[in-house]
Structures are given as C-alpha cells and as structure tokens.
Amino acid sequence: MKRLILTLSILASVVVSSCIPHKDTLYVQEKGNKDSLDAIVEQQRPYRIQINDILNIRVKALDQDNVKIFNPIGEKDLNASSVERSYFDGFTVDIHGNIRIPTLGKINVLGYTTEEIEQLLEKKLLEEEFKETANIFVTVKLTGLKYTTTGEIGSKGTKVLFQERVNILEAIANAGDIPVTGDKKDVLIIRQYPQGQKIHHIDLTDVNVMQSPYYYIQPNDMIYVKPLRQKAWGTGTNALQNLGAVATVLSVITTTILLFNRL
C-alpha cells in the first residue's frame, strides 16, 4: 500500500511539474502599475535612419515632367511584388550612411528622421535644380517595416509590414502567434544601433509591456522566442496530455516486467 501511495505521489508530482501554468499562456496581465514617463517619451521618439534601410522618395512639382528622374518607375512592372519594387526602386543607405540621388549625388542620411530628410532634399533641390516657383514637394518613407522572427513562434523568417508603427504584439500576431510551448515571459528583441546590436528582454504576459521603450518594434529587429523547459522535456502542454504520457510509460514498463517474469 505504501509503495502504491509513493508511486501515485511521484506520478502526481511529474504531471503537475511538467504542465505549463495557465497564467504563462496569457498576454498582458495586471501585475502592478509601473508607469514610466521616460519609457513613454522613448516610444514617441521618431525612428532614425540606419545602415541598410531602404527609403522610398517621391518628388512632386507643378510640372511633373521635370521631376521624373527622381521618381521610381518600377510600379509599372505588375509581375514584381511591392517588396521587390521597393528593393530595386528604393534608395538603400550604404555602409557610410549615404544614399545616391539622381543629379544630387550622395547625401548622408544616417541618424536622420524621414521628416528631416524631406526638408534636406527640398532645400538641396531648390538650391541646385529648381526655383521657388516650381513648388517642390518631397515625401520620404521607409519602404515597409522589415523584421525577422525565430525560435518558438508560428512562422519563422523575415516579414514586411507597410505601416509607420508596429507594436510587438502585432508583429507576433503577423508571424502566427507564440504557441503554448513558447516563453512569453522573456521574449528577446535584437535591435540594430549605430554602435552595433543589443539584446532587450520584454515580458508579454505583463500589461506594463505597453509602457516599455521596446513595445514598438523598429526596422531590422529580430524577435526571438525561447522554448519553455516543458518543450525540451518532451512532455505535454497540459495535465491530461502528461497523464497520457505517464500512462503510456507505465504500460510499457508493466508489459516488460510481465514478459520477463514469464521467461
């Protein structure tokens, strides 16, 4: 009887310890107020251009024929996707932080915002190519927000969203969400800076993640989701699955013992 009780106790411990708690599967739970003004201010800061970013630049004027040279023509190729067109027709920031504009040559844009680049290009065009009466109007946008997902997530690989701002939850939803076996408490964001790459940790189960300076992703971010220990153990994701696994193991052991006893 004691052996039976001990066996059942061990089985119960295995089932409970190898289950994934329900609270670890939920997003944005109330875990205490941690409002931070600094984090909110950081979120509102505009993105500053980095190396390898691709810019979409449009120049408009009263006489549009005069600015054709500045505008991409790949949109007429219906066989090319929007991502492919942006790669071939966009202006890529080289390793020195420069873009190369027709007639204007190389212009350094590293660390500038898109609004600052618009003002810079308008000024240079008026100084070197046009008069005030041409009514030059320049728009500059990033050619989509590109990021990469890897680890324990629905869809791995590079994604592109054509939005100005994308938060981490939207990015993960676009990648097929995090399965039950993914660690939502410690998601890694690998971000590119002029000085190199840095790793940031965020807890998606905490509602205060929305106050994090890393809540909104940036171009070229990599999102890595670690697997939970239960995934490495090969156990089920809930008590019923674990009980079934334990029952299968016990059945195999019992059968083996019976076979040996018959020999």
UniProtKB/TrEMBL annotation:
Keywords: Signal, Sugar transport, Transport. One of its GO terms (molecular function) is polysaccharide transmembrane transporter activity. Residues 42-140 form the Polysaccharide export protein N-terminal domain. InterPro entries: Poly_export (IPR049712), Poly_export_N (IPR003715). The keyword Transport applies. Signal peptide: none annotated. This is Sugar transporter. It comes from Oceanihabitans sediminis. The lineage of its organism: Bacteria, Pseudomonadati, Bacteroidota, Flavobacteriia, Flavobacteriales.
